[in-house]
Amino acid sequence: MASKTQMQEQLKDLKENLLKMSTLVEERLRDAIQSLIKRDSQLAQRVIDRDAEIDRFDDFIDDLCLRLLRSGETKESYLRFVTMAMKIVTDLERMGDHAVNIAKRAISLNEIPEVKPYIDLPRMAEVAQSMVKDMIDAFIKSDALLARSVWERDDLVDSLNDQIFRGLITDTVRNPSTSQRAIHLVIVSRYLERIADHATNIAEDIIFGSSWK
Amino acid sequence: MASKTQMQEQLKDLKENLLKMSTLVEERLRDAIQSLIKRDSQLAQRVIDRDAEIDRFDDFIDDLCLRLLRSGETKESYLRFVTMAMKIVTDLERMGDHAVNIAKRAISLNEIPEVKPYIDLPRMAEVAQSMVKDMIDAFIKSDALLARSVWERDDLVDSLNDQIFRGLITDTVRNPSTSQRAIHLVIVSRYLERIADHATNIAEDIIFGSSWK
Fold it and tell me: Structure pTM?
């Protein structure tokens, strides 16, 4: 069985890696949205090309957690922390996939004419990004208040999503030639909504689950 | 430490409960879609009212898994199975939430005039349902081939989703008064896509993850 110091070291390592992985996801999300706003397909391609980095973190942290579970420590708060970390890693990996999906749509959008500047979409991306960041902090610090604020932000994301959708429907009715653009943008806002959803689900687990401190 | 027989019993219990939970999710999904097709808001309301049952399974199976992890068994295949079960339960719970969301939209849709019968949506729901079922079977039997067939079906769901979306955009351009209906239906197909997504993600874990047999 691992010594207490060894286990504390491994837990610290786990937290640090979770932070690194979530920072990577935030960065990819920011780059994906920037590639759309600035019509920069090269940046979008970089987001796509670098997805494997996030996937490697997923495998690495999963293995780290399994190692922690094999230490033989059976304290419930400890097991809850490690198993929840495994769930979070799955969510982060999926968020990374959504950032890649946004980058792919950005490339398609950059090939068709711009209609008007994006307003709600960058706002929505900003909120989603803040949710990812705060969700990880809430988990690591076991901060239910912060988790609640993540959870509350989901309504804002949903209403921005609805707003974007209605705006695009109106645009398409007025000018059917923009329907291709509308389809891509609705899908982008859907990916943002899903990223926010992942953060919200974890936040719920933090609020309603047992504490691990 | 639990005896080998006790652990085998607990693992059997875990598998049975996972099957029960996934059957419940499939049922809710079927009822939610039926409530839409048959314009039966009472059925939709029942789906909403019974969400707590799925949530209880989530807590119950999570506790069961934690108990298994506390047995002190450190064999890697065993730990992988139990931790993956915990991830699957989270996915099932979210799928249940999406069924509830579909039921809520069905109630709103049942209050506005029907435009034409649904064709692609029931088809999409059927595929999503089959994915949930087969994903659980693939996990329990550690059947990578079945997992692959789940994974492949995701493309069909995505193309049905795109088809529905394009159809609704065309309808709305032709007849702007149907835009409210279109918004609800796009959101319903989005929830179906997310359910399929959860199944696909788990299928990927089964295909690419280490086996636990």
Answer: 0.85
Give chain B's end-to-end CA distance (angstroms, integer): 22
Tokens read off for B108: 């709103």
B 80-119: CB under 8 A from A: 80, 83, 86-87, 90, 94
Fold classification of A4-208 (topology level): Methane Monooxygenase Hydroxylase; Chain G, domain 1 (1.20.58)
Q: How confident is the model at residue A168 (pLDDT cuts 50, 70, 90)?
A: confident
Residues 6 or more apart whose CB falls under 8 angstroms from that of B191 comprise B98, B99, B101, B102, B105
Question: Mind telling me how many Å the CA of B70 is from chain A's nearest CA?
Answer: 5
> How many CB pairs lie under 8 A apart between chains A and B?
72
Cβ atoms of B120 and B50 within 8 Å: the answer is no
Q: Which residues of A touch B83 (CB under 8 A)?
A: 65-66, 69, 83, 86
- Break chain B into its structural domains and give their ranges: 4-208
Q: How far apart are CA B62 and CA B88, in angstroms?
A: 10
Token readout for A185 is 């943008």
